[in-house]
Amino acid sequence: MFNDFHGNSAVVHRLREMLARDRLPQAVILAGPEGSGRYTLALMLARALNCLSPPASDGLPDFCGQCSNCIRIAQSQDFAARFAEAVEARESMREADKRETRLFIQTHPDVLIIPPDPPQMMIKVDQVRRVIDTIYFKPGEARERVYIFTDSAFMKEAANSLLKLLEEPPGFATILLLTENPGELLPTIRSRSMIATLAALPPQAIEQDLGKYRPDWNPRQRALVARLSKGAVGRARNFDLPAYIHCRSQALTILNTALRGKDHSELFKVTETYRAGAEGREKIERLLGALYELLRDLTSLNSGAPELVRNTDIQSELSQLARSADFEWIAAAAERLNEVERGMRRNLMRSLSLDAFAAAMEQGSS
Ligand SMILES: [Zn+2]
Description:
Blueprint: H1 9-20, E1 27-31, H2 38-50, E2 56-57, E3 60-61, H3 68-74, H4 79-91, H5 95-100, E4 105-108, E5 111-114, H6 125-135, E6 145-149, H7 156-167, E7 173-179, H8 187-191, E8 194-197, H9 203-213, H10 219-228, H11 233-237, H12 241-260, H13 265-272, H14 280-302, H15 315-324, H16 327-345, H17 350-365
Parallel strand pairs: 1-7, 1-8, 5-6, 6-7
Antiparallel strand pairs: 2-3, 4-5
Helix pairs in contact: 2-3, 6-7, 9-10, 12-14, 12-17, 13-17, 14-15, 14-16, 16-17
This protein binds zinc ion (ZN).
The site of zinc ion has 9 residues, from helix 3.
């Protein structure tokens, strides 16, 4: 139900009014920062367009969440999991098939989700071709074919194909384009679409929501999670706080070691646990995420904006660290982290590149 969508009620209301009058444009750009709920809202619209027994709420169209269309569309809700499955399925193919295969997420025959295709993480022309190949056929089980592009990074040829499609889409299809920044899309694509802009929720609004949904957390923990979830209420409610705190303490060890540049024993204890293993990749991604958060906080402190600190529960510790890390050091550290990430993508030994990170930091500080 649309009621489950948090924040941005004016935008959601306007979209539902269009649904009520059967006036939702055939191409809609859902713009907003990460975590503002673009994808959640897109799937809600897809269900509202196709629900088999649509209820009304607040006098506007809604979706039941129970019918076969609603259920199957909702199976796409966990984007990260569906995306990982699609990538894995392709990885297990024969080399020749792998090259021919483009990524899609599809849990309902008439609703196609088009994610950016790795390793470039861009929408490719063959993905748009799949849309063109199917869009002119009447939907089988739905009333409306729905296509959701989850990213606005299009390869040039792909963008041109999409543009041609937008010139004359069939009446029974809706195309949703999700983006952080509509400026990334061709102006000619923008001009053929309606833009609906979602804002991220302020931390205070999320703290309030957590007060209701996570009574198991104390106010300090809720304040921390509200900031770390960057305006995304769903992410905040399901935040794995113990895992984050664990990673963050290791990230702090790495930063401390790098800044002091003397004793390595602590660092090796940490990197030892990140040697390639079954869940090694996920662990190291969390660690890198925590490192980025800390560097970001150090930057906020150094630029005299302590109110932007996200790790509010360890602010005094961070202030101390910030005194020994200047802008240049932080910028160099962030650049090294990028290198570590790139290295991971090339499947270098994971702990090796982390050791290299700390070593490079010491050189930078000496
Ligand atoms: Zn339904």
